[in-house]
Amino acid sequence: MNRGPFYTLGLLLFIGTLSVWAQTPKTIEASAIALHGVPKYKAGFKHFDYVNPKAPKGGSLTLHSIGTYDNFNRYALRGLSPAGIEGLYDTLLVASDDEIEVYYPLIAEKVQYPDDYSSITFFINPAARAQNGAPITSDDVVFSFHTFYEKGVPQFKAYYEGVKVQALDRLRVRFTLPSKGDKELMLSLASLAILPKSFWSSRDFSEPLLTPPEGTGPYRVKDYKMGQYVTYERIKNYWAATLPVNVGKMNFDTIRYDYYRDDTVAFEAFKAGEYDFREENVAMNWATQYKGPAFDSGKIVKEEVPHEIPQPMQAFVFNIQRPLFQDRRVRMAINLALDFEWMNKNLFYNQYTRTRSYFQNTPYAATGLPSPEERKILEPIGDKIPPEVFTQEYNPPVTDGTGNIRSQIRSALDLFKSAGWELRGQRLINVKTGEPLVFELLIYSPSTERIALPLQKNLERMGVEMKIRMVDTTQFTNRLRSRDYDMIAQGFGTNFYPSSNLSIVWRSNYIDSTWNSAGVQDPAVDYLIDGIIAHQNDEQALLYWGRALDRVLTWNHYVIPQWYISMFRLAYANKFDKPSVRPKYAVGLDTWWIK
Fold first, then answer.
1. Alpha carbons 224 and 509: distance in angstroms, whole number
2. Domain boundaries in the chain?
3. CB-CB contact of 247 with 590 (8 Å)
4. 10 Å Cβ neighbour count for 352?
5. CATH code for the part of the protein at 315-564
6. Which helix (H) or strand (E) holds 77?
7. For a 10 Å CB count at each end of the chain, is N or C smaller?
8. How many other C-beta atoms can be found within 10 angstroms of the C-beta atom of residue 4?
9. The domain at 219-308+567-594 falls in which architecture?
10. Rg over CA atoms, the chain
């Protein structure tokens, strides 16, 4: 039956209306938000599982730091701020330490966002106060974002390019994202440190600050001697002390950081009782130095705490912006000079495991050969990535542990030769220029020098001269910021999962980021980072994209991987008590208290 043109038009309009309804995003309101999965703690929870809600307040905690500091603005574009200064500022939401990327109310008591993640609205707790007693309002949030965007580190502006912020009223503030679907970018705004506009509006945020600032957090600077020590005191009438995220935490009345010129001096001070807590990162020290009357008497407690926390890629990092290191074969050859098996036996008391992934101890660490799903991701960039990505599982070189690395030297010399270097006498010489292969490792710690010396010796056997240059922390930071180095011993932070944060470390447009310490500008890496960002909401696809990135990064040999240990090595004064449950992803020192 012919129903006529008006019926057809009406049907089309009805279908169009249904389509609009179907595309209208659903609004979600919540007091907690997780990047993946659902929050562990439900609305109305009283405290985190890893705290003692009845922990007594009082007493002091003394810690240490190496080097110096010269200003109180941790966000300044130059200078060094003191350890612990982050306690001066609260964030909109705060993460729990027994989940990954799950956030709960702090300054904001709840959030509202559409399920397409195109915006997020924070509802500020009416009780929220800055340290000067003034209410925290949406105006402070807008001011903070604009200040970080316009005067903070360049990475902030690059990361949040296109994000708009608007105060809807006194206690509601909305961030609108430049595109839909990026939940990780949306959620990252929960960690925005809130600055009191009343203090910072009259100061240059990009410049160092010679006196302590006002903040929004639970601690303020009580006492200091620039470059030597700083003491923070807990604010007794801190407005958020009884919020579930803070119950059982921040139990010390004061926290003091003493500065030492190097770790050897600092360790002797610890044994003498000058400070209270130390996490040891040097295997030899742990095996040989943590003994004596203070340990025997129980005055100092020595404790090993196993954990399953994802581990960072600690490494010797090539600056591939240097012409010497732009050839992957040179980087591969130098990798062969690190004899981990010998070092682990003779220097580390077999405490370590070799790092082989940028996602160590996570499902995203690539193993075996690429799966069909990974190959589908990698094939479009097949001509831009190392061929081994498709044919071999990446593993760092392995020796027999005897110190005899003749086979590694032979392999290295073959790689050097193919890259245009040849051994003349005892030195590797560039065939075209006649220049020897010489570079500098920039460090600031004597303990790093100790682990660099075996690498230096093995490189010398290959005809390569690696100079070791030790500077103080200020010089190191300045040279890091200006990329004035051939190689550094630093590495890359822990990646619990692939996220858009990887852009700051690897993407070409972040070449000026100090986190991009290898100086990578590679369209293939950019492609993989973009794919990771595009698949943040698809956990299965993210697994394949993360493993694909791991393969490309490791086979490009941007670093010489070092090692890791899945254990906290702790020593502390026998004056503390702590909860029976440790947070899954942290030591949990902020939950301890004085006996």
1. 39
2. 27-54+88-200, 219-308+567-594, 315-564
3. no
4. 17
5. 3.10.105.10
6. none
7. N
8. 9
9. 3-Layer(aba) Sandwich (3.40)
10. 27
